[in-house]
Amino acid sequence: MQVSIETTSGLERCMTVGVPAAEVEAQEVVELKRIAQSQKNQKTPGFRTGKPLPPKVLKQRFGKQARLEAVYNQMQQTFFKAVQEQEIKLAGMPKFEPTVDEAGKDLEFKAVFEVYPEIALAGFDSIKIEKRSAEVTDADLDTMLENLQKQQAKWNESEEAAADGDQVVVDFEGFIDGEAFEGGQANDYNLTLGSNSMIPGFEDGLVGKKAGEETTLDVAFPADYHKEDLQGKPAQFKVTVKAVKKPEMPELNEDFFKGFGIETADLEEFKVEIRKNMERELGRAIRNLTKQQVIAGLQENNEVEVPSALVDQEIDRLRQQAVQQFGGGQQMDASMLPAELFKEQAEKRVVIGLLMNAAIESADLKPDEEKVEALIEEMASAYQEPEQVREYYNSNPQQKAQVEALALEDQVVEKVLESAQVSEVESNYEEVVRLANQPA
């Protein structure tokens, strides 16, 4: 096997490989035997079913097919053998092209492929991290209990005026310069006052209104509104309040507690469990905020050339996720979704993955077993049967590998923090959780 490699552009390489004719011919014999076996029980005119075809007939009928499959198999086998021998870090699958493919002659082919970029990470000392600290206070706990009650509230129609936190059912139509605009109309729209789901001023303008009242709201679209043609424009909305609904909060009793998987009739015991959940959430949020800043710092300080093959693979994964999330169970071909929808996100994910792997390799990190067990324990503690969760991860190598990957990411964060410029920032539960849940 003769091999030569040249750089064509960036991360793209072209490998030229020569394979002795004898090896290809030997592979042809193997393919013919395989075809002969598959044809054994096929009905062939002039020949008895169940008997092998004579070699000459087999060659005449299936020689071309055997040659094609032999050449393809040889290209694959020799290419991946060369990749191992040359210690090439292959990114994605190659494209093969036979350049000499004639019986009796040595096979020659080209394989075009991409390699992983060589990343020499810049020092971590220029990365700035704001490490937040917070705790779950009694006030945070009371707010959470109130929110849990609101989630389970019953909504009863009322003749009273609408107040912040009430629901209203409205018909509305919007006008700009006296003209109705597209998307500015709705009927029987259910709106919770104070949810900030409408443009500023809309919800405030309905506070104090009763069922059956009509009103005109003078408002303005925000300068950063998602529809460019409406940004910053003043508008009028004619609104009819069709119903006002007041919340009826459920009692904090045993039935209520069971709805959240907590078997107790005691309010204080319920509070203890809710506080534990909040503390777990807060801990995850603080870690995620720190990790986000570490990743951002790595991106800012390191330019990475991205293999297009890895981006294409990530686009396919994002397409599949989109189909699973929004496909509604219907059969849908994920490849029909335009690649452009996912390209930016895919490139970002690939860059992050390459940087994290580079950091792992440069520090020669291995999954810390204590961290892995701690992560499994954290996930298990959120379930009613934690032992089953522990057993699931510890007996399933593939699932445990995912936890090990998370542990490695945490170890990268710790490694960066050793050298980064870290400042402590006092915060609170609500702010930390809100920031952690914002899109990265």
From TrEMBL:
- Would you say which domain of life the source belongs to? Bacteria
Please give the catalytic activity noted in the UniProt record: [protein]-peptidylproline (omega=180) = [protein]-peptidylproline (omega=0)
Q: List where in the cell it is found.
A: Cytoplasm
Supply the Pfam families for this chain: FKBP_C (PF00254), Trigger_C (PF05698), Trigger_N (PF05697)
Annotated GO MF terms = peptidyl-prolyl cis-trans isomerase activity; protein folding chaperone; ribosome binding
What keywords does the record list, in alphabetical order? Cell cycle, Cell division, Chaperone, Cytoplasm, Isomerase, Rotamase
Q: Name one GO cellular component term.
A: cytoplasm
Q: What are its E.C. numbers?
A: 5.2.1.8
Gene3D superfamilies linked? 3.10.50.40, Trigger factor ribosome-binding domain, Trigger factor, C-terminal domain
- Tagged with keyword Cell cycle: yes
Q: Give every PPIase FKBP-type domain span.
A: 165-253
Main subcellular location of this protein, as a coarse class: cytoplasm
Gene Ontology biological process terms in this record: 'de novo' cotranslational protein folding; cell division; protein transport; protein unfolding
Q: Write out the function statement from the record.
A: Involved in protein export. Acts as a chaperone by maintaining the newly synthesized protein in an open conformation. Functions as a peptidyl-prolyl cis-trans isomerase.
What is written about domains in the entry's comments?
Answer: Consists of 3 domains; the N-terminus binds the ribosome, the middle domain has PPIase activity, while the C-terminus has intrinsic chaperone activity on its own.
Report the family membership: Belongs to the FKBP-type PPIase family. Tig subfamily.
- This chain belongs to the protein called Trigger factor
To which species is this protein native? Answer: Thalassolituus maritimus
